[in-house]
Amino acid sequence: MSEKPILFKVENNLATITLNRPKAANGLNMELGKELYEIVRQIDLDGSVRAVLINANGKFFSAGGDLKYMEENFENLGPTVKHLADELHRCMAILARMEKPLIVAVNGMAAGAGFSIAISGDIVIAAESAQFTLAYTAAGLSPDGGASHRLPRLVGLRRATELLFLNRRLSAQEALEWGLVTQVVPDEELNEKAEKIALKLASGPTGSFATVKKLLLASYDNSLETQLEMEARGIAACASSENGKEGISAFLEKRKPNFRE
After folding, report:
1. What CATH number should be reported for the domain whose range is 6-202?
2. Residue 6, Cβ neighbours under 10 Å: how many?
3. DSSP 65
4. How far apart are CA 101 and CA 114, in angstroms?
5. Residue (of 48, 162, 175) closest to 121 by Cα position
6. Which CATH fold would you assign to the domain 206-252?
7. Percent helix, strand, coil in the chain (nearest 5)?
8. Are 69 and 29 in contact (CB under 8 A)?
9. Tens-place pLDDT, residues 104-149
């Protein structure tokens, strides 16, 4: 029996998704894509989950699309790749818009769609040995997974074009300097550090985090006045919530807040 392509658990309000095809460099095939979507859909609707951590087993974070899977479907390659991209994109849309913070721990090479998944985190922690490359055009392909949307916003149009045209490979430190990751840690500390941050967020004010995510996502398209109105409505809703009242009371009483949801 083959191993499960994804390992999944929920503990202490934290959902952990582990890519688990190490022998295939955690490449994305239809089995992994469909299972990832079902898990992400479940998490989005689960009120007990207050943060999500994505990590990977093996030496790779993910090499992106599984080229062996594509080879097996060579006679029907276009529709196969479209179906696979659709499954991934359903996941990426939910992860971007869900209320819970997303933390990604990048343990090794993140290429192609693996790159797209890696940079989708609200917080991205990379091991020192991690590397990042898009690699699409090297195989005569174009990006998926939201790379063409996120990259210009994270690194600017010039650098995004360089990464997509020239397939430059970035070290973890370069990715940090370019603004693609939040923090770089020694390899042996990656999982512990990422889980520590994820658990901290899982015990935080989920409604506040949800409002922040919504505001940041909308800021790309809104006018200043629209964004200001969204901010005013958001902070008012947060202030009137139980977490908002607890946070203000804790600040005034000089104690640690106890956020319950």
Report:
1. 3.90.226.10
2. 19
3. B
4. 19
5. 175
6. Lyase 2-enoyl-coa Hydratase; Chain  A, domain 2 (1.10.12)
7. 55, 15, 30
8. yes
9. 999 999 999 999 999 999 999 999 999 999 999 998 999 999 999 9
